[in-house]
Each structure stands twice: as structure tokens, then as C-alpha cells.
Design goal:
single chain; 142 residues; mainly beta; five-stranded antiparallel β-sheet; 8 strands; 14% helix; elongated
Amino acid sequence: MGKSYTLSFDGAAGQFRGFSGDSQDYWQVTFSDGTTTQTFDTATADVPSHGFSSGPLDGWYHVTTTFKATSTSEALSFNDVGCVFNDAGVCGNTPPTVPPFSLLDSVTMSVPEPSAWVMLALGFAGLGFAGLRGRKNPVSIV
């Protein structure tokens, strides 16, 4: 509890084969213990009819965010949120349209360990000390 976790993942969006219409799609990421919920939405990917992610999220995109744990039993979940534009240019999911699909890859979650930072600092200090002790006055041989 109380530690910050760094979440990283790759995402993309595409349109189902056989369906037409420009669409939009994004991932809604939730970190929850059932009572406390933290939600993060990725930027929205534009998906052209019969196409793949474009716009600001062109192709595969990488996302990194941080969550702070509020209990010892939290769950991480991903929800694909998408819609298709109808003839009036309104984004919705009314039949016969089908929302785009999202792709998710390389999901990692890590928490920086304080001991790793201490070891790194001690290592650099040791190298600096060894460098100072290793200097000797040059000896000239005549």
C-alpha cells in the first residue's frame, strides 16, 4: 500500500473486416480494490473505414502511466471503448455498425525498489573513491 506502480503497454485500433465507417477508439485502464477506483483513459485513436490507428496515435502507440496502490488487493483491468460515426457524423454504437477493435501488447507493471537506488548510489560512490585512490604521481625514469 502507498507505493506507486508504473504501468506500460502498447496499443492499436482497427476496423472489423466487412464493416464500414470511420470510428474512434481508446483504452480505459482501471486500478481498483472494489471501493477505491483510479481510472486512466488513453488518447483517442482515429480509425478510418477499413483501416488501422491513425491521427495522433498513428499505428501502434506506447502508453506509460503511474498508479498509487491504496490497498493490498487491487485489480488492473482494461476496457476497450469505441464508437462508429453514423451518417449524421455522431459517434455511437447503434446497429448495424460495429465498434472498432483494440489491440493490447507488452503490458508491464513495475514498482521502483528503494534498495536498487541505494545500491546504484553506493556503486557510483565506490567508483569515485576508487578513482581518487588510484591516482599516483607519475614517476619519471631517466
